[in-house]
């Protein structure tokens, strides 16, 4: 039995957060699969706390202008554009 | 026309004609940007996307004289282990009829195995170069994180992925890696490998350890000399593997032993958590990365009937396949309020633990070896309905990405049923020469 039982409402909520519409069949399948997958992820609870000093350094460069894509090139894959801008649906 | 469906787009891109790759064809995975040639990521979302610039690795291929014969098929956005989640149909395995070619760089491995390209580039986030190389009986290298520029690679999980070579032999894979490797101003995570700067400086170092005796270029490292090589074998990567795979693996180790290598077994407890840690981290990064596909800058044309969020969700329902949706949703879940510490933070701890275990194991061995995949190539259509089983097949490859290390998959032989088995050899960070040298004793 799945300990991390996931219900369809939860799947719909996460889909909403992710901005991905799902059909009813997908919701049904994902509900079952997510329970199983999240159960497997539960095993991470056994992982001990690990002291690690990440071997990271910042990489800086001078703040100078460089050659870049033209506005036309940047817009060439947009389904719609207007006056050199991306065009999207209304925000609310 | 090929029967393997290895290519999404066949369009020739000519190189400079001169250089180390002159006269060679190098197929490029379809998540690597090619100026003026569509780059789909195996997704309906990018079916008509034509990049306005070349990835750094593509610039380097062209400058090295290579000809690119086309863009290869892949699991959608790199999310899969079989190349069956592509919106452009599954790829056949030229080395094992009716079986999957592995994934996600299945088109690249199949193109090389079928002789439709001399060489190919793939990308490896959790095994996506090594798995198809193993399943198709060819060689694949996942470089140390930071060795190869990711500029122009359409991102899936930035902290894990690297572009790398697939080739019929270790020497050819090494030569291709040499061309694409190196620091790039467009990718701040790239570093010049220590061996590259030494090569340029003509620095004659003191001879001593196994690694230091290797010659200057990466291709020259493929000299097949494993005399004195110490191999560590993590027992966790044999437990639970298919019996026929394990048998073939030991045959390959015997062969290396006969050539002067020796081995010992080593326990790395942390590896038992690698798959979970990998999927939590990769899905979390993917949920953020793939937010850019909103139908505004690229993607299917929205109808503009609802508001932004409704349009956005509609475009993404239409443009993404099921595995991509699954990973975006699970990644969003793992990062959402109340679950972040339980999943993401624990996964980062597991990642640090795995790194430490590799450091320890590699202090007692030159390289670590395991079967590349715990199973032989699956039958086509077998794994699509069972995502968890498919994820678990990545048990041996994902630890390497989590630890940022280099690894090579070389053909180890075949099972009694004639199915290809790969041997994975893992080295220390920037230890490419060591794994190339070790692998070249077999292929």
Describe what this molecule looks like in 3D.
- The complex is a heterodimer of chains A (92) and B (443).
- The two termini of chain A are 43 Å apart.
- In chain A, helix 1 crosses helix 2.
- Chain A is flat.
- Helices cover 37% and strands 4% of the residues of chain A.
- Chain A is mainly α.
- In chain A, strand 1 (81-82) and strand 2 form a beta hairpin.
- Chain A is built from three helices and two strands; from the N terminus they run H-H-H-E-E.
- Chain A has helices at residues 8-18, 24-41, 71-75, and strands spanning 81-82, 85-86.
- Chain B has one domain: Amidase signature (AS) enzymes (Alpha-Beta Complex).
- Chain B has helices spanning 56-63, 106-113, 130-136, 170-180, 194-201, 243-258, 274-289, 308-319, 322-335, 340-363, 387-392, 398-402, 432-439, and strands at residues 7-9, 26-29, 71-72, 119-124, 139-142, 162-167, 230-234, 262-266, 367-371, 407-414, 420-426.
- Chain B has an eleven-stranded mixed sheet with strand order 1-3-2-4-6-5-10-11-9-7-8, sandwiched between helices.
- In chain B, a hairpin with a 5-residue loop joins strand 10 and strand 11 (420-426).
- Chain B is globular and about 70 Å long.
- Chain B starts with 6 loop residues before the first strand and ends with a helix.
- Chains A and B meet through helix 1 and helix 2 of A and helix 7, helix 8, helix 9, helix 10 and helix 11 of B.
Terminal Cα span of chain A: 43 Å
Which geometry of chain B do the CA atoms define? globular
Q: From the structure provided, what is the oligomeric state, counting identical versus distinct chains?
A: heterodimer
- Strand portion of chain B: 5-15%
Which architecture of the domain at 8-46 in chain A would the CATH scheme give at its second level?
Orthogonal Bundle
Stretches of chain B where pLDDT is under 50 for at least 5 consecutive residues are 203-215
| Spatial gap, N to C terminus of chain B | 29 Å
Which chains make the largest contact? A-B, 47 and 63 residues
What is the number of strand segments of chain A?
2
């Amino acid at each position: 039995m799945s300990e991390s039982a996931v219900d369809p409402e939860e799947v719909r909520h996460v889909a909403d957060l992710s901005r991905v519409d799902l059909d009813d069949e997908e919701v049904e399948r994902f509900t079952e699969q997510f329970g199983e997958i999240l159960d497997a992820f539960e095993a991470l609870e056994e992982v001990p706390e690990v002291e690690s000093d990440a071997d990271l350094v910042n990489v800086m460069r001078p703040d100078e202008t460089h050659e870049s894509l033209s506005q036309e090139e940047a817009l060439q894959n947009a389904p719609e554009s207007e006056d050199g801008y991306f065009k999207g649906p209304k925000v609310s | 026309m090929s029967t393997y469906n290895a290519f999404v787009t066949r369009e020739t891109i000519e190189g400079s004609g001169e250089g180390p790759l002159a006269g060679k064809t190098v197929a490029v995975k379809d998540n690597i940007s090619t100026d003026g040639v569509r780059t789909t990521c195996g997704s309906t979302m990018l079916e008509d996307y034509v990049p306005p610039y070349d990835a750094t690795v593509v610039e380097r291929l062209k400058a090295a004289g290579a000809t690119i014969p086309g863009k290869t098929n892949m699991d959608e956005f790199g999310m899969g282990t079989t190349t069956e989640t592509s919106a452009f149909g599954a790829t056949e395995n030229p080395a094992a009829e009716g079986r999957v070619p592995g994934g996600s760089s299945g088109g690249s491995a199949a193109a090389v195995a079928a002789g439709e390209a001399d060489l190919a580039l793939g990308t490896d986030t959790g095994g996506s170069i090594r798995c198809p190389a193993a399943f198709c009986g060819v060689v694949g290298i996942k470089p140390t994180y930071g060795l190869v520029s990711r500029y122009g690679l359409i991102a899936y999980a930035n902290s894990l992925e690297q572009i790398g070579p697939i080739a019929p032999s270790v020497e050819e894979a090494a030569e291709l890696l040499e061309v694409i490797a190196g620091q790039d101003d467009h990718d701040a995570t790239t570093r010049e490998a220590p061996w590259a700067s030494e090569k340029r400086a003509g620095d004659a170092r003191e001879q001593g350890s196994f690694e230091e005796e290797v010659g200057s270029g990466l291709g020259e490292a493929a000299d097949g000399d494993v005399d004195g090589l110490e191999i560590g074998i993590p027992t966790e990567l044999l437990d639970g593997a298919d019996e026929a795979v394990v048998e073939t693996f030991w045959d390959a180790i015997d062969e290396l032993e006969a050539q002067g290598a020796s081995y010992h077994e080593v326990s790395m407890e942390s590896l038992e958590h690698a798959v979970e840690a990998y999927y939590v981290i990769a899905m979390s990064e993917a949920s953020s990365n793939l937010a850019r596909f909103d139908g505004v800058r690229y993607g299917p044309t929205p109808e503009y009937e609802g508001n932004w969020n409704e349009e956005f969700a509609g475009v993404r329902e239409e443009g993404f396949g099921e595995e991509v949706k699954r990973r975006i949703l699970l990644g969003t879940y793992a990062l959402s309020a109340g679950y972040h510490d339980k999943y993401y933070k624990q996964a980062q701890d597991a990642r640090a633990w795995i790194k430490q275990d590799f450091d320890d194991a590699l202090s007692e061995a030159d390289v670590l070896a395991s079967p590349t995949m715990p199973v032989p190539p699956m039958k086509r259509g077998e794994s699509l309905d069972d995502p968890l089983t498919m994820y678990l097949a990545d048990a041996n490859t994902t630890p390497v990405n989590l630890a940022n290390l280099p690894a090579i998959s070389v053909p180890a032989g075949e099972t009694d049923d004639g199915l290809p088995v790969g041997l994975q050899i893992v080295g220390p960070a920037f230890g490419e020469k060591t794994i190339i040298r070790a692998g070249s004793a077999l292929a």
